[in-house]
Amino acid sequence: MPLEQLWAGWRHDYVTAATEQERAGDGGAADGGDCVFCRIAASGPPSVDNGIVFLGDLSFAVLNAYPYASGHLLVLPRRHVAEMDELTDDEATELWATTRQAVDALNAAYRPDGMNLGANLGRAAGAGIPRHLHLHVVPRWSGDTNFMTSVGGVRVMPETLATAWEKISAAWS
Ligand SMILES: [Zn+2]
Predict the structure, then answer these.
(1) pTM (2 decimals)?
(2) Sheet holding 52-55: strands in order across?
């Protein structure tokens, strides 16, 4: 019997639209004009409503609206860039610092057995055109399904995104 994703309590438009746009392979216009990740970045300070757990000068971290596992975060540059080599040195430095903070916060909040960290770069890797660069940070537990299975499949989520936001925000240093 196939599992289904059982929770439906999260309704934030920005994050939901961002994930759906990503799934459709459409990251928005090249200038970011209709990019939902840009809209999230401009939606105000971190809150349970916009799903942002950290908003820096050049980067931010937001909950994935359709997580592969509890605590699944996306880490992004605030500026609309598609490729790694489009990042300035300062952006790349802060993006990595934010990614490290995300890993630390997820370790503190969830005590996972491991994590997946990665990005889809280019069409062949699953990226659409043109899109807003983002890194996935996904907590993993021994005995859960492998990463590709969890990406393609459906999961029973043990907590709501609102709960995840509270836990991660409290753990973020
Ligand atoms: Zn964008």
Answers:
(1) 0.77
(2) 52-55, 59-63, 73-77, 135-140, 114-118
